[in-house]
Queue: 3 jobs
Job 1
Amino acid sequence: MQDVLRPLIVVGGSLGLTLAAGWAADRLLRRADARHPETPLWGLLRRCRIPLQAVVAIAALRGFYDQAHLAEDHAPTIRQILTLALIAAAAWLTVRGSAAAVESTYSRYAATAHDRARVRRVRTQVTLTQRVVTAVIGVVAAAAMLLTFPAMRTVGTSMLASAGIVGIVAGIAAQSTLGNLFAGLQIAFGDMVRIGDEVVVDGEWGTVEEITLTFLSVRTWDERRITMPVSYFTSKPFENWSRGGSQMTGAVLFHLDHSAPIDRMREKLGEIVRKSSAWDGRDWNLAVTGTTPSTIEVRALVTARDADAAWTARCEVREQLIRWLCAEHPYALPRITTGPAAAPPAPRSVQPQTTHVELS
């Protein structure tokens, strides 16, 4: 009878302890979240409920396994499996907890900060730092799992002795990967590019959507994704339209006839920008910036709050000014002056030469 009751008591007690610990932790976090709604940490920590229950369940089974007398022939193997599972569950819980703490700190900072560029910078740093922490926890957990095997502890001394040579060989073999890794850290803490920045790379304009330790993803205006190694941004020039502020000035060029009514166009441009929701109210202007024998170059400038608004404002100005010119001042559109082609001169006829011979 005891052979049946002991396993049931151990397993049932472990499951009961797991459910009780999960319920108690969730209850406490709910109360803390209700008392301090301005702090999102308690709500985020509720994501750790499943990893916490896994740790408690595996730790209880590992601690009371010897009293259960279950599958004694395979006891060493089962204990080893439970130990490995406990290390993995503890690493999972640590990753979830650190992620909740970091995300809570960022959320509180983003809610109080007024500089959106600085918020994007902190977000990029937090994201990459969290990835580094996750990688470190994974490496430590894997090392701890390996050290639970007696054979690995025996080989540990020789592995440490050859670590220098192995490190050199691995560094040479993974030169590109390590370069991207350090480039990712340089981007995160050097404030070169941030998540949400609007950049131009290889002639493509888009928004930085994701930054990892090895690659960066840019979402273009037509919903495409450009993925490139982060080392690109540390070795090649690129345009960052969001650095130093997101405000931009859009320019629209017109090639018109010399008789174009510049003053009337300037008045019409003022009417257009004042009605446009893309204009940020800072400035607008229209001026003649160039001339050719047949046309003049007219440039219209309009300011906007960001690159998207600048693009919208440029399209509105271009469309409405052209429509207005066609309807009110068609003579201002560029024209090509032509005339009748002159006929080529007629070829002169060749007269036969006559030789007069005088006879005496």
Job 2
Amino acid sequence: MDRREGLKGFSAQLWADTLRETRRKRPLVYSITNFVAASFQANAALAVGARPVMSRNPSESREIAAGADALVINTGTPTEESVEAIRGALSGAGEGKCILLDPVGYGASSYRKSLIDSLISEFTFSHIKGNVSEITLLAGEKGAMTGVDAVLTASPPAAAVRRLSLRTGSLVCATGETDYLGDGKSVLAFSGGSPYMPLVTGSGCVLGTLMAVLSAGAGNDPAAGASCAIVLLRLAAEIADRKASGPGSFRSELLDALFRVSPEDLLEEQNRMTVKE
């Protein structure tokens, strides 16, 4: 697969190639994630052809991470045991693979804020993916969380994405009605999806899993994997939306759509992406 510089040179053909290669390679993705969304994430990984491992056991996290093709760190339900597992996995992961941080609930508590800040300062992540509130706070905007989804004040998402990417060196994604993806130089915006998405717990966590899986499938290309994941999930959500009668049926239809979307389907998705700045 051709390599590009940063976020330049994206095409629908690249996304098709990324999905095709992922299903051929069947990458092993290790997720230390929250118990609310773990099964949903595992099923999404299986639907696109990956092999998920879901363990929060610190006794094995370093070893599993060393053998995995990609690593997902999700702070949605932190415990002493899971934090120990996270640190073990990050220490043992090695270099050259996709390592994604999903800073769920950043700012919801001082403990969680301190944990995420320390992970970012101590370890290097290829991706940081969070909702607009989380990314905005991480980028330095002042505010307070009223849960894990809402922030009381916000700067433009594209500006927050750019600022956080420049500070961390990570590819940053802020999710919401529009998804923003930035590398410190360019910011891309992605449209589409379904209004059911925010009504299904773990839908954002699924995007993090898909980003890691598809980045590994693309030969550890974070930008190709992240952009392909956004396009794939939004397309699958639109397909599921047409068949669903509510959030419950949408969840199952979404997994079916992720399984059924073909590389050729992605060739029609070029217009979903626009350059924001």
Job 3
Amino acid sequence: MPSPAHGAHTGRKGGGQLSAPRLRIDTPERAGLDAGELRQLAGEVRALTTGPDPWAAGVVLVAGRGPVIAVEEAAGWAVRYAAYDEKTDAGTELAAGARVPVTVHTPFDLASLTKLFTAVAAVQQLERGTLGVDARVGAYLPEFRGVREHGVTVRQLLTHTSGLRPELPLYDCPDDAARLAMLRAEAPSSEPGEYLYSDLNLILLQYVLERVSGRSLDVLVRDGITRPLGMNATAFGPCPGAAATEDQRLPWGKADRGMLRGVVHDENAWALGGVAGHAGLFSTARDLAVFCRTLLAGGSYGPARILGPDFVELLLTPPGLGFALDQPRFMGALAGGGAAGHTGFTGTSLVLDPVTGTFLVLLANTVHPRRRPADNTPRAAAATRLRRAVRGT
């Protein structure tokens, strides 16, 4: 494999560039945002946890512009239910004294937001010269014959154009050897080059990254992203203080695991030991705001630099690498000018908009006490409210 590129500064200080200002909590006016719009945004977020059928048991919002966090709101419960009652199709509520309220410091199971960190870790390897974006996956993982024989590339994994089906039942395998054999044999189900969102893309990318770097994904994320950025609340589980997710049982779940809190919700990530390219990270909204701010600032935060500006551009410009771009379904009015972000099955989402310099993190446990069809309406509404708050536009 190629040696690291001379002068790469991933995860290091300085790099010959000016420091990017760190986030601070300040007034909407200091961020160039309308205070009235943000008050309405905070109120709308609080309402998501109320009523007989709330959108989520608990929600945390962090939003701002530039280096300013202009609104931070927590509402509802990190743990509200003891179980799901399938006879009544409702949660069995804990006594008031046994519930755990959400705070702005509550970690959440990020679900597919994990993919963004895997994508950044991959682009860090591009910057180092240890990985080629258009290289064939089979060149790094020759034993993965399914993708090798179809010439699947690293770029296709990152853009969900490999043709791999959405998932495999790794959770049904008896052991790690059987799971690995299934992944190695898996071939595209459609022609590579066509878009088909698949968790398998990021799972295979994890194997590529671990092969080229000689380090596990959790170490790559910690040493290359979270530690240099001071994201001390972001890590793969277990995370005992996290918001609860699902009373995971058959037939609605894919495994019988009971009420989950602090262990990964995704069944395949659980089967893979909790560290996976597509799911497994836990984090807080404020930590994710740092992640957003870093990318909006061209890869730097304070004295740390995790990527150079050209590589951030590679991540965030069409077709994008790992990030969804300009998706009105969850980005609302922020979409259309180059906004980037992602959603997670457990109820998580983030959006960053290079045009306005705004960012929005919305963490929720919508699957507590049981998974339900995704409803992006509150996410889109929050993003639209933030866009309306931008002054001078």
